[in-house]
Write a structure and sequence with these properties.
Blueprint (H helix, E strand, L loop, with lengths): L1 H17 L11 H10 L6 E14 L4 E15 L4 E14 L9 E15 L5 E10 L12 E14 L2 E15 L6 E12 L4 E5 L3 E4 L8 E15 L2 E14 L7 E12 L1
Antiparallel strand pairs: 1-2, 1-13, 2-3, 3-4, 4-5, 5-6, 6-7, 7-8, 8-9, 8-10, 9-11, 10-11, 11-12, 12-13
Length: 271
């Protein structure tokens, strides 16, 4: 059932990328390109709903393919004339076939990861945000989560210059409670770069780099390289943004996936 759902999502989003879905003519050049660049800013003053479909290939000795849906609503709150609080909450739904003979397959919810960014309301070429991030052990099966309550600092910074939007998000979390076997001390880094073309098209890369500081020496890092293409549309005040990307893990711990295909769609509305 999950695989049928994921294929339906994939097909629908593929049609979005090629369908002749256009905004009015006056929006096609300047405004749609500006809207795309604003959507690429994680601390922009916008309501967003991201649906990220990850297909992780080559998992374990069986070369299993894991599917993970990341549903991420972003909600901005105005604290004052000068400051916003940007809330970004990530919920996972995971379909993981058995990666090896001694590990059963699993399907269900993953851990819940809310992040809060305090960010200036007025952005020029440079934007930033600082705040805490948390992990709540909401996974419905032990194989799908950490089984730990964790927290740590988070930051984002980026520069918007001409057609470029370049920056990075970073956080590190430590566990402080839970029932897991090893605890958590993990860094998460997502550098990103977008090059925007007219009419909402862009090239992008946003690899997710992780470091498990509790792993054995030489097995801490997962480092993907790759990128892809995206398209932004304006339908009145509603923005629709779709991406196709592929990554190969040049560094990974034993048993981890060797490559990833990402299909993402965002629904965006100004605050």
């Amino acid at each position: 059932m999950m695989r049928q759902t994921s294929m339906g999502v994939m097909t629908s989003l593929a049609l979005l990328l090629v369908a002749p879905l256009e905004a009015p003519a006056q929006d096609l050049e300047g405004s749609v390109e500006q809207a795309a660049k604003k959507t690429q800013n994680p601390v922009a003053d916008q309501y967003k709903l991201q649906l990220e479909n990850f297909f992780n290939f080559g998992l374990g000795p069986k070369d299993a393919t894991q599917y993970a849906l990341h549903a991420i609503p972003t909600i901005p709150f105005q604290l004052s004339e000068d400051w916003n609080l940007i809330t970004r909450t990530e919920l996972l739904v995971i379909d993981q076939p058995s990666p090896s003979r001694d590990v059963e397959s699993a399907f269900g919810l993953g851990d819940l990861n809310p992040t809060l960014y305090l960010s200036p309301r007025k952005h020029a070429t440079f934007s930033w945000g600082l705040g805490p991030t948390f992990t709540f052990p909401t996974a419905t099966e032990s194989a799908l989560g950490s089984q730990e309550w964790s927290a740590g600092p988070a930051a984002v910074a980026l520069v918007t210059q001409g057609p470029w939007v370049i920056g990075s998000r970073i956080n590190n979390q430590w566990s402080f409670a839970g029932w897991g076997d090893h605890g958590v001390n993990r860094m998460w880094v997502q550098p990103f770069a977008h090059y925007n073309f007219p009419k909402g098209w862009y090239l992008a890369t946003l690899p997710t780099i992780t470091a498990n500081w509790k792993a054995k020496s030489g097995e801490e890092w997962t480092v993907p390289v790759g990128g892809g293409i995206g398209k932004h549309w304006l339908l009145g005040k509603l923005g629709i943004d779709a991406q196709l990307m592929g990554f190969y893990n040049v560094e990974r711990p034993p048993g981890a996936a060797n490559s990833t295909f990402l299909f993402q769609i965002q629904l965006v509305r100004p605050k």
